[in-house]
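TEACHING EXERCISE
Course module: macromolecular assemblies
Task: Read the component lines below, then compare them to the predicted structure of the full complex.
Student: A.B.
Group: 4
Components provided:
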Amino acid sequence: MSLQPILELKNVHSGYGSIKALKGISLKVMPGEIVAIIGANGAGKSTTLMTICGIVPIEKGEIYYDGKLINKVSAEKLPTMGLCQVPEGRRIFPRLSVMENLRLGAFHRDDTDQIMKDIQHSYEMFPILGERKAQQGGTLSGGEQQMLAIARALMTKPKVLLLDEPSLGLAPIIIQQIFDIIAKINKEEDVTILLVEQNANLALQAASRGYVVETGEITLEDEAQSLLTNPKIREAYLGE
Amino acid sequence: MRLLPWHKPHLLVRPNNLKLRKLNTMEYFIQQLINGLTLGGMYALIALGYTMVYGVIQLINFAHGEFFAAGGYVGAIALAYFAGIGYMDSHPVICLTASFMIAMAYCAYLAVGVEKIAYKPLRKNSRLAALLSALGMSIFLSNGMMLTQGVYDKVYPGELFQGRFDFGMVTISYLQIMIVSLTACLLVGLNLLVFKTKIGMAMRATAQDKTMSALVAIGSNRIISLTFAIGAGLAAAAGIMYGLYYGSVKYDMGFVPGIKAFAAAVLGGIGNITGAMIGGLIIGMVEIFGAGYISGEYKDVFAFIILISVLYFKPNGIMGENIDDTRV
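Instructor-supplied answer key:
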């Protein structure tokens, strides 16, 4: 295969002060893929995404995005390059309106007309956001906030979207909606997705490939289908 | 010791107020209302700097009062310069506008520098470290002003806005009209900036969640600098108003009004811009009315009674949200 990975981590170490959260993570994401990272609570999944985004400083190793080394690129620069994250807990700006939250997704963009069109497009994709556009972000329900967080991230015009626990705290019916949207974004908007989930079953069904993280290291990587049928995985993460 | 006019606002407001000693008249009340509005507007301008900086980086910037004092000095120097070259008589409005702009720009740069030197390196440390750094900065700046400008009052070029309107016993000076209307313009302008523009939206976002702001390409350093610059610019405007109103400035003049404006910010709900405006007006009014109806000797006490009561009974202030809310 001659395709170059759009996102690649090579032996990445990082942590918080003396706590080493990542001890050599290596992974690849090819353009157009949905890749899942699964693992238990505290395994380093979220830290992996925060390290990619430059929020948690990298100590060792390399991160390549679109062929460029991005170790030293500041966090606020990455969204302008097309690398965007929907963080765990959604982190909607609670005292900004839905409209303002969306508008801020396009903070680095100057194409005002296109921004307005994109906001309209978000309302078409998530009609509930259109109904609540003047409401403060903090007053939305969990599912609505997740939709807003995804819509806000799409406003940055990402090539790669990092999604951290999109199912967290949501009702099963809402989770299904969110995952349908994720698949749709991947297909229709041509966005590559790196998905972190504790809900391994859900994540592996949506993804084409998966990585298993345990205490800061990748212990297994495979096609999503094979992981789903792997007895070890079934025992450890799928509750059998 | 020569008393600064500051210490006798009920007397000094204008010499002709001396005839208004009848406490129970409507005119006296209205006069106090006008004086309170003037003073309260100045407090509101200063309080905004405290509240905006707190909103964005959760720091009580105790050096903020020094920006107010520095603004007063720079304004005095600029006005004296314009008077010296003879522009003041021919173009008073232009000179005054230019002085305001120079002082506001100077203090904005000063504040950005102070933040870079004294607060930014401590941003990852405990809040107490930055607070102590702020106290140190306050002493440093006020002593710097003392060393460069001297320990005595610097008299303001006082010929500006000498006129006044008399409505029976009530007097409104041109200066008061200028101060109140300029304050109103600055407050409206700030509201538009914070609530209607993209950069204002980014400021509010940074105040609510800095990590998430970075994830949508908002550089928090830039926003923090901007916040300091705006806050100090407003304080500098208040500094010139103070100098014009009371006729002089002094190196340590930032301290007491600074603490009172801090009380105003707490009263309004620290971190809340509308709250700081309301808090400033209330503190100004309480001070003037307290001095006018109770005793001028106690005028500084009123602001602090309010501060202590607010902290005791309603620590979130008038407009403040819940402190334990997920934000900041």
